[in-house]
Amino acid sequence: MAASMLSVASDLGAVLVIMGNLYGYGPLDHPMTEQDPLASTGTKGRIRTAMWTDALAAHRAGRVRVTEARASDFFGPGVVENSFFGRNVDRLLAGRKVYLLGDPDVPHTWTYVPDVGRALAVLGTDERAWGRPWHVPSGLARTQRELATRFCEVAGAPAPRIGVLPPVAVSAAGLVSAELRELKETRYQFGRPFILDSTACTGTFGLEATPLDEALSAVASDAAAHTLATAS
User: 143-148 long-range CB contacts below 8 Å, 24 or more apart?
Assistant: First the structure.
């Protein structure tokens, strides 16, 4: 798919804006920047690295103009399948217990989907963006517990009741679930600080992350509207 999109962009003279992620970096002990090497040894990371390496080579050869936006775990209105937070929104609003992956008390960067859209639009139309990757502006890192707690406060929901999925249980479930089996490669993201530095994009293009409370309020409002529509 990546090769096909690169070929089409080249043929049409279009700018190719790749929506990337952070798999390629692998585990790091500092906030990730665009200058960090793509050193992941996992399958997901190596595929992402190859996609960007091929695109950048084509750009440098003058065959196409490319850039890549990289973001952390998505959250936002209607985003229910892209992160453990999104999948637990309805449970949190209902005061039901939620089970999280990894350590709920290590800092983690979360990226608001509308901020992703704004970044992609700018990267595709500002030639300063081409020929390198950019981290989507994302707010201060929050632990999973902090994010769930603040969401409940903003939404007026009961304080969250949080449990942790034991690693052995996730591994066992992976024997029958391909989706859970894939988590093995990226589980480190929730067992240690996973922090994104997006200051380059903010400094260059003036893009800022949406304030957390505003973003969480939008998530809560969307979830409530969906619940009302379903009930009616």
Answer: 143/104, 143/105, 143/106, 143/107, 143/108, 144/84, 144/85, 144/100, 144/102, 144/104, 144/105, 144/108, 144/190, 145/100, 145/104, 145/105, 147/85, 147/108, 147/110, 148/85, 148/88, 148/92, 148/98, 148/100
- Name the token pair of 95: 């005061």
75 vs 89: CA distance, rounded Å: 10
pTM to 2 decimal places: 0.92
Closest CA to 188 of 4, 20, 16, 28: 28
pLDDT, tens digit (0-9, with 9 covering 90-100), for 40-75: 999 999 999 999 999 999 999 999 999 999 999 999
* CA nearest neighbour of 45 among 33, 56, 37, 57: 37
The answer to whether 206 and 41 are in contact (CB under 8 A) is no
Helix, strand, coil percent values for the chain (each to nearest 5): 50, 15, 35
